[in-house]
Design brief:
Layout (H helix, E strand, L loop, with lengths): L1 E3 L4 E6 L2 H5 L2 H9 L10 H11 L4 E9 L2 E13 L2 E6 L11 E2 L5 H12 L7 E8 L14 E7 L9 H11 L4 E5 L3 H21 L2 E3 L7 H11 L3 E7 L2 E11 L2 E9 L8 H15 L4 E3 L6 H4 L4 E11 L2 H24 L5 E2 L14 E2 L2 E3 L2
Parallel strand pairs: 5-7, 10-18, 13-14
Antiparallel strand pairs: 1-2, 2-3, 3-4, 4-5, 4-6, 7-15, 8-14, 8-15, 9-11, 11-12, 12-13, 16-17
Helix pairs in contact: 3-7, 6-7
Length: 376
Amino acid sequence: MSASAPSSYRLERAETVEAIDALAAEWAELESATPEATGFQSFVWCRNWIAVAGPSIRPRILCLRESGRLVMLLPLQIETRFGVSIARWLGEPMTQYGDALARAEAGRAHWRKLAQAEMMRWRDVDLFALTRLRTGAVMADGTRAGESFSAPYVDLRLATTRRHKSIERRVKRLEANGPLALAQAETPAKRESLARHALALKRGWLAARGVYSAGLSNPFAEDFIAALARDGFLQVNALRVGGEICAMDLGFIGGGAYRSFLGCFDERFAEGSPGQALTSRLVARCAQEGLVAYDMLLPADAYKLAWATGEMEIGARFVARTLSGALAAFALARLRPFVKRVLRAAGPSFARVKGAFSFGRRGARLSVSRPKETTT
């Protein structure tokens, strides 16, 4: 752990497993003191990613202390692509929202400046790709680069909930196969087993439709999801019909909201809309538990918007230290979205290069797929 110390502030970098583990208790306490926390910057999320990703990433946790007290933490990882060193949020591409953790105190703006100044002194980084920033995030300063996205959510504090008569009619077809029952997997072994099964179902659904997921195609995705489920961080919610699993949702509670991280269903029951039946029951359960929101995360697919009462805008900031970093920022923020728009407009008769600007296990890679894209 290296450090620099301006006045009463101390900036530290935790880069080894031992140094990161030593932060566990303080990290968890800081997360609980951060109103914007979503769970994606939690110690458990980040530590499990470090464990499965191994030497393919270089973790760098930037900590700011005021009079010895941890007041701000930025969990980052450094990767090299096309000879360019890029720092981005720890856990990407699995991390759906990027941000720092920081206490809700008057010194925040100053803390952010100190952290940013320190980051710009890192000679081994060409570009900071601060993507997946929600509106109002700790590190969101109002500037945006590249495409903006939105994440649909259901505000559970609203007095009324939407009724979906067409879904209700299809669910009746589902119930013809037997009674519906929603339950959580309770043991580590069962959670892990069902999580792996859910991922297989989801990947099969994506492959059948030619849809590319940057997160779920990652070589560490399965072990990461299995580890989070085994540890109990991920809930594994299964909807059964007549004793058979027809749909599952893997999610977690963070910042007072349920984050629906991975949903899937068994194609055998597709006519009865099992995924929507599961969503209906989960939304109701989360409201009963006193949660404030049911977060469907990116992307804003039509089936999510049918439930949503609002959408959270998601943007990105790219901060370059070097010329090569500036060129990479242009490619990621401007060129990549342009190419994606062109290829989407070209239609399904045209193949798409899906990995030209993606982050892979051993560097960016080129491969051909059909022209649809989504995230986890």
